[in-house]
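User: My instructor asked us to take a sequence, write out its structure as tokens, and then describe one feature of it. I'm not sure where to start. Here is the sequence I was given:
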Amino acid sequence: MRQSRGGGANIVEIILAVILPPLAVFLHDGIGTSFWINIILTLLFWIPGIIHALLVVTDTI
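Assistant: Let's start with the prediction itself. The structure tokens for your sequence are:
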């Protein structure tokens, strides 16, 4: 269940995107395609997982 945030990501999600990228994506979108893609990126390469999480959390993708 997504809450209306006024179009921006909150600071907690951005911090989580850097520390625990899959958790940030899960809190933002729930378990879906973006979550599983982020799990794979984080497990394999970490930095792409962070980049992907930041893009998801800021609603860029």
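For the description part of your assignment, you could build on this observation: The mean pLDDT is 89. Try explaining in your own words what that tells you about the chain.
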